[in-house]
Amino acid sequence: MAVPELDKKLLGELEAMGFPVARATRALQSSGNSSLEAAINWIIDHQNDPDIDEMPSYDDYLQKRESIRKYRKMGELKRNPVTVQHG
Q1: How far apart are CA 24 and CA 79, in angstroms?
Q2: Which of 8, 9, 20, 66 is most deeply packed, by most CB within 10 A?
Q3: How many CB atoms lie within 10 A of CB 25?
């Protein structure tokens, strides 16, 4: 299984905002390249991680697959909210 290609446009936008390339790369990998907002939210949620400014490895990617699924699922729920119908 290969690490997915980073969205170069999103990476450039994060770098233009002043985020180090390693931090931006981690954020994009961990948020599944889904959006700028998801990447920034990840950065905020993980800003105190001791390894946040280290370039991620393939092993890091494998360990964070569940996080990617979580962020994608959150995005799907925002786009398609579940409604409860009362009988």
Answers
A1: 24
A2: 20
A3: 20
Amino acid at 34: S
Nearest one of 50, 49, 23 to 31, comparing CA atoms: 23
Instruction: State residue 32's pLDDT score.
Output: 85
- Note the pLDDT of residue 56: 79
58 Cα distance to chain centroid: 15
Cβ-based neighbour number of residue 20 at 10 Å: 14
Report the alpha-carbon distance of residue 4 to residue 19 in Å, rounded. Answer: 20
Structure token digits, residue 79:
């786009």
CA pair distance 84, 36, nearest whole angstrom:
30
